[in-house]
Amino acid sequence: MGRYILKRIASLIASLIVASLAIFALIEVTPGDPAAFMLGLNAAPETVAALRDQLGLNEPLPLRYLHWVGGMLSGDFGLSYTYKVPVAELVGDRLKISLPLALIALALSTALALPAGLIAAARRGKAADAAVMGATQLGIAVPNFWFAMLLVLLLAVRWRLFPAGGFPGWSDPLAALRALTLPAIALALPQAAILARVLRSALIETLGQDYIRTARAKGLSRQAALTRHALRNALIPVLTILGMQFSFLLAGAIIIENVFYLPGLGRLIFQAITQRDLIVVESVVMLLVFAVIAVTFLTDLAYAAVDPRLRRPA
């Protein structure tokens, strides 16, 4: 197991290095001058040059890359061109919203998908299976922002059970959780539909294996074979989807955050791109890449825990 973990850590470090080079290169080839954009079209060339020097844009690219990476390793993500505050402070404030939102949405999608996938697999070809598959097809086909607007109209405007938008802060945890409930549901429903279909397919495939037939031949019921044996072996594709979903939910909720007026990480990225705040874009995208790679690393460890064969040396 230790050798397996070391190999995964080496792969994680190599992926981060390649990703940082790619992100820095892509940001640098973006057309336009951030200093000129910040000062406006009528800014004097001397003023633009002074601002470029202040922002460190005149340094050689390799030196800028090393300063950027070294700063991130030490926790210094630079100063936002637009907000004039440290990027780490901006990201920290937005993560207080986006991270709980992603975790709540992931928990909801898992809580909905696991029983739905189990029921569909256990009742394959029957009415319950058809109902679950129809509901999941609808969940995948309908955009999550439509779900969001429907939830606002029904649960916020008509029945007044939840706020329609905004975030009151964590000084009142109950009010904060109520503000995140509708966005989390809107994000969770499509993800739950995908996860349920993947789980159903994995369970049906696993139920056709020889060891399941042997267990059934020894008198084990289909339900017991499903929950005791098939479920664990069907978890590997499910874990893959869960890892991908968390990464998407953390930063892919730009539309939902705009529907509910949530100042989260997705909106920060969108605003930074429109304002050409390159240091914010670079740092936030790199943090998100790190989150994706870290989740993948944890998913690999979960694979090894579920399937001991992966821990064996090749």
From TrEMBL:
Taking the first listed entry, what is the main subcellular location of this protein, grouped into a coarse class?
membrane
Gene3D superfamilies, alphabetically?
MetI-like (1.10.3720.10)
* Organism domain of life: Bacteria
Give the keywords, sorted: Cell membrane, Membrane, Transmembrane, Transmembrane helix, Transport
Sorted alphabetically, which InterPro entries does this protein's record hold? BPD_transp_1_N, MetI-like, MetI-like_sf
Domain ABC transmembrane type-1 intervals: 95-299
Q: Where are the transmembrane segments?
A: 9-27, 97-122, 134-157, 177-199, 234-256, 284-306
Q: Where in the cell is it found?
A: Cell membrane
Bilayer topology term: Multi-pass membrane protein
What is stated as this protein's family in its record? Belongs to the binding-protein-dependent transport system permease family.
For this entry, the protein name equals ABC transporter permease
Query: What's the source species for this entry?
Result: Sedimentimonas flavescens
